[in-house]
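Researcher: We're teaching a course module on how sequence relates to structure. For the next exercise, students receive a sequence and then see the predicted structure as tokens, so they can try to spot secondary structure elements on their own. Here is the exercise chain.
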Amino acid sequence: MRLIDVDAFLDRELRIRDETLSSVEVLKELDDASTDYAILSHRWGDEVSYEEVIQLTKMDNRDEIRRRSGYLKIMKSCEQAKSDGLNWLWADTCCIDKRSSSELSEAINSMFRWYENSKRCYAYLHDTSVFPTTRDCASFRGSNGWPEWFSRGWTLQELIAPKDIQFFNRDWKLIGDKGSLASKLQEITRVPVSVLKSGLSSQRLSVAQIVSWAADRRTTRIEDRAYSLMGLLDVNMPMLYGEGKKAFQRLQLEVIRMSNDQSIFAWDPEGKNRQTTSVLADDPSLFRDCHDIVKMVPMEFNEELPSLWKSDEEFLTMPEDQGSLAFTVTNAGIQIWLPLLPYWGCPSLFQAALACRREGSRVPMTIDLASSKSRHYRYFGATARPKPSPELGQLYLAYRAEPRHDFIFKVDDRTIPYYGFSRRDVLPKEVVSTEDTITLSRACPLAVILYANGKPNGYFAVAFGHCFGQDWVHVIADEQGSSPPSDAIGVYDRMWNAGAEYARRMGEARLGTHSGSQREPHRIKHSHLKESIFGVEVVCGKSEKSDHCKVTIDVVKCPGCCQQPLEWELTYRIGDGDTPGLMLPLTYWLINLGHHRLLVDGVAAKFVLSETLQGTQVCRNPSIRSVDPERSSWGTTVIFSSTPTDLCIAEGTSSKIFTYSSLNLDCIRMIQTSSLWYIESAVNLERVLMTRM
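Model: And here is the predicted structure for the students to work with:
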């Protein structure tokens, strides 16, 4: 390491003051293990660099450099070291040539050892005159009520590693030492007194507990959130400034390669995160509530598993050697054996037991995992009941989360009011929603829309989710043993449990798409409303023009003979996507015996008699393009006949006409009332299609 020669530095300062300038070597390479030296711990400010220290006497701005607070810190530290009988001093500002990336990397990897080997550490608290005994948020507004030194990432290891720390105030007056202030330091930093007095080896510390001490600390560079923990976790890795939060992921993977401590997976034990992600934490802040987590040895873990799940199944017993808890990093994920408990009704969701526990408890901690393809991800918010059948499984835990980005659902529910239904609620309140869009984000990966018509059992809900990079949609209408759709909050909570399963099903439905198809796959699903004459039909998929998922929702009359549950069925999006509702323009890829069909998302439509016109106007003249919006249940939609076998729709004042052709008029059941023929689609999106005699 490169150290400051205390006598040479102070002598040079005297010569500069006396204007008897001469070149003096103030920095020297020495071995930290065999040299007695002091070390400075401080909050960076207006500092001096390696170049400025070695070239000071030759620089024209040396007086400006000597007035900096950083230079004064070094000079005061040298004076204190000389008073303590120490001839050498290390300071991170000027003892590292930061122009060299290799030297910087070596210093960061060695820094914990350098602080640990020092004879005395000077902790300079620049923003206080006394050591505080109580939190003072007014005086230390930006540092959680304590001097700023306690809020910085790098000063955590600088607090723990040295055996002897002396605290100095802004005027370089001694205000305490680590030994006498250990209890107060524990209150401020949550680092146990035993660690402060005897070091990390004084007790069996878990990874989660160590990282928890850094949860509320900050660094200027985001990568330093990880790099400042390397010494505390006893790992080494190269510095890659610019990698951002990936640095903390790399740190955890290095810990896994060196340790079998499963507490590294126990972050966010209170479940505040509420998202599906990799088993590795994104940031040390997620370990905030892990300060009392301790490791368990295999024998202890095996003894306490039955008390966790009230089971004495022998196959849960793991070999009582440290290797039995081992896990390895592979390109498929983190390979590990874990005791698992499946959840009722959620075949993709499991509770997993970890070989760690809370202080004061002997019961192993658990986390929830959700499976997707061959990997398992960390899952939050499960409220379902676990099955009473634990199992031991070999898993591949995902250590990289799926790419996260906002996901937009285009929602078309314009025809919902036909039978008196309307939107009653959208949850959660913070979700970004409009009349025709739902936007999901990392912070809000689930939304639920509640529909109702004010009648008994006249409720249903549609859930929109994004999980494992897969969008999913689910209709909640008549599910046995579940919250009624009228309970929007209950439905929302239940969807948290089932989100991983619905994402899996939707993904499997997509995999079932015909590989030779040139058309975007769509899926259609029917659900019956409990004790009602109505059903809900939903079609979802992506158009050729957009990556957004379009979801079309409609209420239909349903005789109740449908079998529940009905799965998603594959259909195809036909046309340009501008046609209102599910009804799509005729195409010729489905031709049967030379006849044209009226297609509804690729399915030949059936028709029943309509009960009402709902204000829709019928015209012979194709030049008519609009009607009074108050007289039409769909705004300005006009339906008219252009040929004996074709039905045309013009929407608004647009000149675009959508033409539908029937198989033949004899195949459509039509009943004449007065001078109108009534036809209703089975999916009811264009509610009434009519032709005159």
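Model: If you want an answer key for the exercise: The first helix runs from residue 6 to 17. The longest strand covers residues 333-343.
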